[in-house]
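Reminder to self: tokens first, then the designed residues, so the page reads top to bottom the way the pipeline ran.
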């Protein structure tokens, strides 16, 4: 996986993830992403962090094929820890994190976006949790920060997706723009924040986290326990096998 950092003179750091073909990250990739976010937040010269991706979509979650190829549970433990760390670092980053989302934002992508401070999206962006079709659970904590509770439940049970326009209607997406304008729109918003007093903004982030009604770390960790339970039951292995074999039949 490639993680690129581009620093602007005004204190904006742009973190770009590029892991073809669909930005479905392996276990190591989630840990690398967590470390990259942590390093930017620890830099006193950074005032805002923009999280974006290259390729067909923002994020397709975890690499199911990596999990399916593991005869034990080692990779599952590693990827669960990696997702937890990546989501946590986005949430706890001392400066605001803006997610600039294009194309698909699925599975673990919801965890990243749901824990971000601000979400911008292109017209072609869509969001969802296909977890139930993969024999897993998780990131409902973060989906519930993006859509109303009953809508989140329907999405979770069905695996259906929601558009950027729908999320904008719920108030969780700040703006929806043409795909070609997404990078510039993210920099414009980041620049507006970066122009503020950096100490005030860092304290604002800390204070907003402090008044959150849900402990997102504890809530997500609770969800992960059910993923382990499903794996021990054997249903997750069957779901991953079907996913991998289905991909093979489609020539992917």
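Designed residues (252 positions):
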């Amino acid at each position: 996986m490639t993680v690129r950092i581009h620093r602007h003179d005004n204190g904006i750091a742009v973190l770009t993830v590029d892991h073809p073909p669909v930005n479905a990250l392996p276990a190591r990739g989630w840990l690398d992403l967590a470390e990259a976010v942590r390093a930017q937040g620890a830099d006193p010269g950074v005032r805002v962090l923009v999280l974006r991706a290259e390729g067909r979509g923002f994020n397709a979650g975890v690499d199911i094929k990596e999990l399916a190829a593991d005869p034990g549970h080692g990779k599952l433990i590693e990827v669960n820890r990696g997702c937890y760390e990546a989501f946590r670092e986005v949430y706890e980053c001392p400066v605001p994190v803006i997610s600039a989302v294009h194309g698909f934002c699925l599975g673990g992508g919801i965890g990243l976006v749901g824990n971000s401070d601000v979400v911008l999206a292109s017209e072609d962006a869509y969001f969802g949790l296909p977890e139930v079709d993969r024999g897993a659970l998780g990131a409902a904590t973060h989906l519930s920060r993006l859509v109303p509770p009953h809508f989140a439940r329907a999405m979770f049970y069905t695996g259906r997706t929601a558009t950027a326009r729908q999320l904008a209607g719920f108030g969780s997406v700040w703006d929806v723009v043409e795909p070609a304008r997404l990078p510039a729109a993210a920099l414009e918003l980041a620049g507006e924040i970066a122009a503020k007093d950096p100490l005030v903004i860092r304290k604002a982030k800390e204070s907003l986290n402090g008044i959150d009604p849900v402990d997102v770390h504890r809530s997500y960790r609770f969800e992960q326990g059910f993923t382990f339970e499903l794996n021990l039951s054997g249903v997750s292995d069957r779901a991953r096998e079907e996913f991998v074999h289905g991909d093979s039949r489609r020539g992917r």
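The chain is about 50% helix and 15% strand.
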